[in-house]
C-alpha cells in the first residue's frame, strides 16, 4: 500500500512522534442509532473491529481516518503540529492537479498559482549558489515548465500583514486603559506557536494574540479573491500552492478559518516545503542553476517585475522591527533609524526598548523556541509580563529552515507532559 505521506520528507531522531509511515487512525467510527445501546465491540485477530448488536448480528466498523483538521482540534494522541501530514498537503497532490490539467478539456482546467516565500527562496539560493533575483526567476521558469500558470512572491503579501500588525498594535496600545488584555500583543504568524497556545493555554493567551493574518493566508485571500476577479474566475477554479520553509504551514492552510463555504475551497489549497521543491527538481531531472530565468509575475500589474520584492526586518518576518518603528513614530513622534536588540538569558530571547528622558515608552521582545515561550507564558499568567509586544516563533533562532535545507538541529517542541523534545529533522530525501 502506498504511503499517504510526502516522499520528500525523511525523519530522524524520532521521540514522541508518530512516524509518517504509520497511518494515524481513530480506532473506530461508530454510528449511534436508536436501539443499539446494548451493542458490544470486539476486535478480530486481523485488527478489524466488529459491532455485535443485542440480537446477535455483527457489523464491521469503518476505520475513521484522522484529517489535518482533526489534528488541530486534538489534545490527545497528537503531540506536535508536524506529526501527521495528509495527502492533500504534498508535492504529489500538486502533481495530480498538474497531470489532470494536461488531459482536461480547456474549460475544466484549474488555474495553478504558486506563491513562494522569501525564506524558501533564500534556502534554494544557498543550495544552488545563486543570487536572490536569479533564484526567483529560475523558480518561476521551473514551475511554469511543469504546468503552473503564475508564480508570485509572498513578500508582497507580507507587506499587508506587516501594515495590519502595525495598525493593530497602535490601536490596542491606545486602548489599553479600557482593557487589561489589550497588551502585550503576541504575534500570530507562526502556526506551531498558535497550535500550542490554543491547545495548551486557550483563553489565557488568545486575547493577546494578534488578529493579523500571516503572509501565507493574506496571499491566499488575494489570490482567491482579488486575482480570481482579475481572471474572471470563481475561487474554486484556482489551485493555489504555497512554498514555505515550515511544515506547520500545512496545518495553518487547513484551518477551517480559511475555508470558503460558498465556493467550497481553501485560500491555500496546498503547501509544499523547500525540501519538496528539491524533490520536484530531482523528479524532473533538472538543476535549478541550469534553468533559463523567466520574467517574474506581478499580482497587481500586467507588467512583470524584474526584481523580487524585499523589505527590512529579520529572518522571522520583521514584525518586531516594523511595528516598533511605526509605533515610535505614530505614538511618540520619534523616528527610529536603528533597532538595537539586547540579549537576555540566551540569544533567542532579546528585547528592544524606546526611552525618552529615562522613561521607557515602548518595551518589545523577541521570544524564539519553546523554552523562552514557556517562560513568557508563565509571566503573562502571573501578570508580570513587562512587554507591550512580543514576536513569538516556535523554532529557536526564529523562523529557521530545519524543515528544508539547511536544517537546524536546535529546534524543539513540547511533549504532552510539558517537557521539551527535539522534533524530527526533515530534509530532502
UniProtKB/TrEMBL annotation:
Q: What transmembrane ranges does the database entry give?
A: none
Which superkingdom is the protein from? Eukaryota
Q: Where is this region: Disordered?
A: 405-429
**Iron hydrogenase large subunit C-terminal domain residues:** 112-398
Pfam families cross-referenced by the UniProt entry: Fe_hyd_lg_C
List compositional bias (Basic and acidic residues) regions by residue number.
405-419
| InterPro entries per the UniProt record, alphabetical | Cytosolic_Fe-S_CAF, Fe_hydrogenase, Fe_hydrogenase_lsu_C
The entry sums up its family as follows: Belongs to the NARF family.
Name listed for the protein in its UniProt record:
Cytosolic iron-sulfur assembly component 3
- Origin species: Sus scrofa
Amino acid at each position: 500500500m502506498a504511503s499517504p505521506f510526502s516522499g520528500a520528507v525523511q525523519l530522524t531522531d524520532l521521540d514522541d512522534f508518530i512516524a509518517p509511515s504509520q497511518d494515524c487512525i481513530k480506532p473506530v467510527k461508530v454510528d449511534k442509532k436508536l436501539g443499539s445501546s446494548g451493542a458490544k465491540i470486539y476486535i478480530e485477530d486481523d485488527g478489524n473491529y466488529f459491532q455485535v448488536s443485542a440480537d446477535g448480528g455483527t457489523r464491521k466498523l469503518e476505520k475513521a481516518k484522522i484529517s489535518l483538521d482533526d489534528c488541530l482540534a486534538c489534545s490527545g494522541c497528537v503531540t506536535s503540529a508536524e506529526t501527521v501530514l495528509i495527502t492533500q498537503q504534498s508535492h504529489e497532490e500538486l502533481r495530480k492537479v498538474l497531470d489532470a490539467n494536461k488531459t482536461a478539456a480547456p474549460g475544466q482546467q484549474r488555474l495553478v498559482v504558486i506563491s513562494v516565500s522569501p525564506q524558501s527562496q533564500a534556502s534554494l539560493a544557498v543550495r544552488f549558489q545563486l543570487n536572490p533575483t536569479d533564484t526567483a526567476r529560475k523558480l518561476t521558469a521551473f514551475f511554469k515548465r511543469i504546468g503552473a500558470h503564475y508564480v508570485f512572491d509572498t513578500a508582497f503579501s507580507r507587506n499587508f500583514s506587516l501594515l495590519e500588525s502595525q495598525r493593530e498594535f497602535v490601536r490596542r496600545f491606545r486602548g489599553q486603559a479600557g482593557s487589561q488584555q489589550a497588551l502585550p500583543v503576541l504575534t500570530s504568524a507562526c502556526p506551531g506557536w498558535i497550535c500550542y497556545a490554543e491547545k495548551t493555554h486557550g483563553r489565557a493567551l488568545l486575547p493577546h494574540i494578534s488578529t493579523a493574518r500571516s503572509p501565507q493566508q493574506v496571499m491566499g485571500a488575494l489570490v482567491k479573491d482579488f486575482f480570481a476577479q482579475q481572471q474572471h474566475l470563481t475561487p474554486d477554479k484556482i489551485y493555489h500552492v504555497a512554498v514555505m520553509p515550515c511544515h506547520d504551514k500545512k496545518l495553518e492552510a487547513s484551518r477551517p478559518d480559511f475555508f470558503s463555504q460558498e465556493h467550497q475551497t481553501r485560500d491555500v489549497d496546498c503547501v509544499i516545503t523547500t525540501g519538496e521543491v528539491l524533490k520536484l527538481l530531482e523528479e524532473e531531472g533538472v538543476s535549478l542553476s541550469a534553468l533559463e530565468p523567466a520574467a517574474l509575475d506581478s499580482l497587481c500589474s500586467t507588467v512583470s517585475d524584474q526584481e523580487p520584492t524585499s523589505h527590512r526586518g529579520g529572518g522571522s518576518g520583521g514584525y518586531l522591527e516594523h511595528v516598533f518603528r511605526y509605533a515610535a513614530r505614530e505614538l511618540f513622534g520619534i523616528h527610529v533609524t536603528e533597532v538595537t536588540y539586547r540579549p537576555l538569558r540566551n540569544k533567542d530571547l532579546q528585547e528592544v526598548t524606546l526611552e525618552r528622558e529615562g522613561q521607557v515608552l515602548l518595551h518589545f521582545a523577541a521570544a524564539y523556541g519553546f523554552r523562552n515561550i514557556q517562560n513568557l507564558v508563565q509571566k503573562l499568567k502571573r501578570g508580570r509580563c513587562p512587554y507591550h509586544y512580543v514576536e513569538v516563533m516556535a523554532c529557536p533562532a526564529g523562523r529557521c529552515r530545519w524543515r528544508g535545507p539547511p536544517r537546524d538541529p536546535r529546534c524543539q517542541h513540547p511533549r504532552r507532559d510539558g517537557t521539551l523534545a527535539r522534533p524530527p529533522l526533515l530534509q530532502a530525501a
